[in-house]
Fold this sequence. Notes:
- The protein is α+β, with helices and mostly antiparallel strands.
- The chain has one domain: Ribosomal Protein S5, domain 2.
- The chain is built from three helices and four strands, in the order E-E-E-H-E-H-H.
- It has helices spanning 43-64, 77-81, 84-103; strands at 6-9, 13-19, 31-36, 69-75.
- Strand 3, helix 1 and strand 4 form a beta-alpha-beta unit.
- Helix 1 crosses helix 3 (84-103).
- 28% of the residues are buried.
- The model has no long low-confidence stretch (mean pLDDT 89).
Amino acid sequence: MAARGRKSGGPVVGLQGRRRDENEPMDQRIRIGFTCSKKVGNAVARNRARRRLKAAASQIASDLAIPGCDYVLIGRAATVDASFGQIMGDLRRAFEEVGKRLEGK
């Protein structure tokens, strides 16, 4: 369902986010999913990209994610080899852009 939400993409990380509908449980938790397609590489590369995204999201999401929203972080081929600082910067920018779009600014 997040694919129908707001999107932001960078060279290292993609992000999709959406507010939950009225018919869904309206708890204020932030739900985050992670995905990497085969374009990222073999299973080892995809798992490494996913682990790096999870580590970055654990540091950033509590500050920038909007409670009551669902997010999907999309790993790209560059996620595997990018520095952790690049991942953090790209993810921070993506959360800020999606947050503005979700709040209607």
